[in-house]
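SAMPLE LOG
Freezer: B-3
Tube label: C17
Construct: single chain, 236 aa
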Amino acid sequence: MGMPIGFDVVDADGVDVEPVFAWLREVDATFSTYRADSEISRLGRGELTLADCRPEVDEVLTRCLALERATRGYFSARPAGGLDPSGLVKGWAIDGAAARLAAAGAERFCINGGGDVVARGRPGPDRRWRVGVRHPVEPDRLAAVLAVEDLAVATSGEYERGAHIVDPHTGAPPSGLLSVTIVGPDLATADAYATAAFAMGADGPAWTATLAGYDAMCVTSDHRVVSTPGFARHRA
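STRUCTURE (predicted):
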């Protein structure tokens, strides 16, 4: 999926992590837009039909369509015209990895996939998992430090990849925001919401305030921090 993935499992003895890595390899082979032989690449080129693909492809594209409707089209599996559900797949893959870790017996763990995080349980009796949100402009600083338990954290912004998020309505990079961080129960949804809010540009912060069950922090292009009322409870 073109990103490093790290695991921190408390009391990992007896937990078989191989199904997790097998899952991530399967997701990469199916959904990577960097691989010409992946099912999503071949589907996008018209070499396969949806019926030819694994059931997970239909699952992901169905969720993408629902999220496109929920975000007024600012999240899309075709953000620049070609088929690219990466804005959902990364979080969905990590959610799947978390489910497999839990099935293997892990109760307290944290998975970090390219800065997007799923945290389950607590690393210790009196502390929650600490998640640093990278500053969108200054790489040696953090924009926030969060303390989370049984939650997911997703951040969208330009960072090293430059202007890779576009407004699907115009095909152009949005303006007005430097980053969007979403905290909530499901990483795939949080990741898609963060992508959509960033694509909205200056309208993104107000939209995040309408999200039930999810909190947000936006850093604007003039370096203001705008948060939803519930976001403060996640700060360390």
